[in-house]
## 1
Amino acid sequence: MNRLIVNADDFGLTPGVNKAIVECYQRGVVTSATLMVNGRAAVEAALLAADNPGLGIGLHLNLTSGTPLMPPGSVPSLLGWDGAFPGVKQALWRLTTGRAKAHELEAEIKAQTDRLVGLGIRPTHIDSHHHLHAHPRLRTLIRKICPRHGITKTRGFHMSARSPKAMAVKMAAKLPAAGEALKTPDRFSGIEVMGDRDMAAAVRRELAKPGYTLEFMCHPGYADEQLSGATSYNQPRQAELMRLLSAEFAAVIDAAGVQMASFAAL
């Protein structure tokens, strides 16, 4: 029997995102979420997680958007002129060229991990905003830091998607990194339908082969004013929410006879 982990990214981004993720969990669709500890609604997300203990919670490591948890003066190589993370393209350039200093990356990863635990979460796994943890430098640091907090599982990138974004992520994930690898689900999906949102068909295709664990990534949210101010990916989040709560999506899961799980089951 296949196991299906439906992970909602960006828990803690805004109250509307939190509301959507919890609604999907309570409807039996989402099984897991990753919390953005520097999000404006991170504390609310932790309180909601405590009220919904069956929802697996991991760390959504964020080095591309918003402000760091470390004092900006202590991690300058990770930040733009305004003291905020500089966006995914600039973050990737800094990682690849070595401009992002290892000790500053380590300090911020540790700070975000400590913050998640400090919010009362026992993290099930780690992934990252904009899939930055596929980069070998970050994978090396994550392997060093996260097991100290009992985090031994992470999002993998073994997937069939062939979009330019998916191919770039897969290529990065194949580059060598130091340290013992964290455990991952057998397959990953969801990146290929961002913006298109034929989510039921994507899950149906992935579950056609028996006997493996699939992580399906999603980004449900209510496209309110706060979300519009927090990210450019706003209206599609509400479309994702409607897809996840649709009868079609539920029917695909029922027909597959899949076991719904979180990363805790790996």
## 2
Amino acid sequence: MSKVLLINTNTEKSPYPVPPLGLCIIASVIKNGHEVMVYDGTFDEGNSLIGLLSDFKPDYIGATIRNIDDMDVVNPTSYIESIKRKFINPILESGNASLILGGSGFSILPKFFLDHYSSDYGVAGEGETIFPDLLSCLDQGGDPSTVPGVLTRDNAGGMPHRTFDMMHLPFSEIDRKIDYSPYRGRGSYPIQTKRGCAHRCVYCTYNRIEGCRYRKRHPAHIADEIEQAQQRLGPLTFEFVDSTFNDPSGHAEAICRELAGRKLGLRLRTMGINPCNASSDLFDLMCSSGFTQIDCTPDTASPHMLKSLKKNFTLSDLIRNAKLVREFDMPTMWFFIFGGPGETEETIRETFAFIDSYVRGKDMVHMTCGLRIYPWTDLHRLALEEKIIEPDDTLADARFYFSKELGKDKLISMINEASRIRPNCVPVAETAPSPEMMSEAVRMRDEMRLNEPMFRTLLRLRYRMLGKEMPLQ
């Protein structure tokens, strides 16, 4: 039986650490045919990797690359070289194990990473089917280049889609594969309810990584995973990590009904509430099933920019969503991106008019300047047409799109000014709170016995630093 070591190379812990969901699902898929070990580098950061490689002596090493950089246009941080130094170099120096790359970051830039990390093979997109097929081929001495979905340095130009049947997705059982204790204080237990995204936002890579067709898990299967994890770990927060939780219409409602019926006393949160499918029924079900926080990511509230970014909802949909947040008193983090194609001072004023009118002062607004350009997106094609980037640019170094009408400096100045007069609006430079701010937030939560989402406590501190009190509504 061959030995497989799966390595999480993501060491980013701000604003909170993210458990390696995909890697642990892969471990569940291949556990019957291989001796599998998962190494989580989030907190160890490669320090014990050399010793582990020596002791375990894997035949195959799968290394996942989650993020390329932090997408911060003001103070950008690339993860490429730190991953190479902490993880890839020790792997290459350790012996004869085949190195196989995967993960969302790899899938965006497969040829670059295969070359830069001198990897033998790559698995682009979903690995639950491709990775086991590749291991079987290698075990039998076959030709890996014949396995659909496997990329090599000689054949990494395209990314054929092979998708996994989500109805048979195994439970990740993250806490049984890694030490979950460091995540309990600040992180959440990730749950995926489906894959794929039918929308075509100009900057987004989800279509390329997961495909354009929704593939759903059964609500009872999702509830079983959550219930079993809570039985093992006790009370904790579960986070639905789909690109948009309430797409397609009806799936999120069915999940909430299943969870509410089991009366598990859950704490739930989710990213990506789509305003197009927001409804009183959805919010009522989310409250009854245990939701304590949501993220809403409209990116803009300008009608012109909604069309420019190719959003599937209107300003009226967005206003309805904001009213539902108020009606159900749902703690919400809002996310807006400024500077896309056609952005002007007027469209920015339209977005802030929405924020001022409909977003509560006790809810946080994240503001990002500039759009990160990724290969094969509509934004990439536009940036080439406007000669913002060259055709041979790998985009491994972060490149950002700024509307011609504003430019980078003007845009950053406008956003910074907006944050000074709106305490709940946080510019990208403050998105990751400092260690000192996090320590103060923890102390405040203990002293005041706060059970609110962490972002609310951080907002309290920001209001205090600006000499103001956070509003109750």
## 3
Amino acid sequence: MNEVCTNRLEALLNHFPVRARTFHSGALCGITDFASPEPGGQLHLIKEGKLEVIHSGEAPIEVHEPSLLLYPRPMSRRFISDAKSGANMVCAELQFDGGDANPIANALPDVVCLPLSRIDGASEVLALLFNEAFGDHCGRHALVDRLFEVVLIQVLRQMMETEQIEGGMLAGLSHAKLRRSIVAMHEQPGQDWSLEDLASISGMSRSVFAGTFRSIVGCTPGAYLQGWRVRLAQQGLRQGRQLKMIAVEVGYGSEAALSRAFKAHCGMAPREWRQAHSGT
């Protein structure tokens, strides 16, 4: 993985890590319904067997080779496989740190279906994951959980490198020039970034940068920076940290300035938000 790709993933995952917990390994036979699960996502790895995936109101997804199914958010679905032989699968729940505010989960499509052969550099990790998941080795559950997290990172890398994301943060991180300014905002949210600064980092003129950013990411650079700062502030509030310290770290000189930006972004003041999310 090249340095630029490393930086754009690390800046995200350091602030908003993802944790996996395996809940199934073995064959799924016949019809298996997944009602809308608890908050979070799920990742399914199909080792062998055919699978038909049904989502309400959409065309079925036909899986005919070893593949991955990623659901970053709760979504009801039905898996249909052969009633006798079934499909051999390993499945994990994904907990995105920050819940609804997690930018990775928010940036991904509702479902990602990807043949395992198309995930560059993942063959050895997948082989180890399947060997552990279907074996009986000491500590296998903890190891498989960590391997799921590695696979997810490889999938994110693959999607960015092949520009499979249309619009939003991950599309910006896929762009050869925009990603430089987005990583800079992620890594240094407290910096007093101007449009000229960000355009210069991306190697673009001010006007071209602004237009390209809005076209690819879907908002202005200023709105994106505010949204990123508010997400970081929400993380700090979840951790019980002082609002004054959070304000300085995310680029606002005072609690009042952070409160104004926070309320403009999510409709409530930081203290109201903390109270509303105290149990999440």
## 4
Amino acid sequence: MGEWYTSGTLFYIGTKLVRLIVILALAAICLRFFGLVSERFFLGRVGAGKFPLEEKRAKTLSTLINQILNYALYFITAVIILQELSIDTTSIIAGAGIIGLGLGVGAQNLVKDMISGFYIIFEDQYAVGDYIMTADMAGTVEDIGFRTTRLRDGNGVLHIIPNGVISRVSNYTRGHMQAVINIPVSYQADTEKALEILEQVCMEVADMPEVLEKPKVVGIVNFTSSEIMLQVVAQSVPLKQVAVETAFRRKVKVLFSAANIQAPKP
């Protein structure tokens, strides 16, 4: 029982432990280094260089490349540790390949998810921070991987969606949004005066930071049995169209009341 408890054995075990600690420490340093390099490489290209990137797309690519490098480093570190423990990794890698080939037949959904994730990322369908709608879910994209997309809705619920089931996406944060403001007035109201007031409000609202260009008065767009419908359209910053509509209606209410422009009666 006591023969293994010798100075040579203890030195061997101590050396192995030190080598394992050094390997793990180097792996941790490499993880941190790769994360910083990928982040600086992609974020450094935001709006600069011959091929500039948008900030959201740069963050998405940085996160994805960092994940790939991490997985590769985990695998390499595991193989090195097994070799340090005098375990034959050749047979393990070969066995893993055979098992992987056998599982490949039953992993069609996984392959489909990864291929879909590849197209989502490199076609720039959406990026981290975008507000999207897919199927019956809508929310802000928190993370995009090769296999899944993480989407947080307005109630704070995090949805993890396999990329393979994302067949249609509506992106609310690309380009401008259009605010459509319908203003009903009664048949007794002075419609010409109402249209003049709408033009005045368009000039005032045009200074809002959420408005991309001066709103336009479309005019009378509909008649019903009890009202005349006037309409204004405005281009707004993505996801800010409700703020523009609210501000516009508030100003219209004040000026219509001052000019005695009657609203339709129920």
